[in-house]
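Consider the subject:
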Amino acid sequence: MSDDKSPDVLAHVGANVRRLRGGAGLSQQELADAAGVSRRTVINLEAGQANVSLSALDTLAEALGTTFVSLVIAPSATREKIDELMWRGSDPASHATLLGSAPAQTEGQLWWWSLGAGDRYDAEPDPAEWHEMVFVTGGSIVLELESGHVELAVGGHRTYSSAQQYAYVNTGAQVATFLRVVLA
């Protein structure tokens, strides 16, 4: 199994580690010691040349007092739409992409939704700190948010605050299926 990431992710991680380490007032050796990696790994990582495991990135983030997402996100990306290839397996069909992130304090819920042709679900606003993530696996849906409507086809995703009126609408002729993650 391989942890190959795209070269762009390695560059983002390197710049973020360098910036966060400097902000924390840590030397490369102090960060290496705190994260349980070698100084050479930190040097190579900051140069965008080290390809460390996802769990090592978690450990580095913790040592820097930040989150995994803060460590890997591109400067131009938002947490709601990250879209970074984070892992490749030995088979070309094996890969993991970090789509988006939202804060959570209490719990996360994973839902499988199926919405028949022409059907809709209208939701009431959740408490202010709640967020949702949806990922369409079949058909398409229109996500009606207060900020506007977003059409999502297979593979489309969105992260948003659910502290607003919103709806899932299937305007297509086939059943729409999607994953919904609720973070409270």
Q: What stands out?
A: The longest helix spans residues 7-24. The radius of gyration is 19 Å. The first strand starts at residue 84 and ends at 88. The chain has a mean pLDDT of 89.
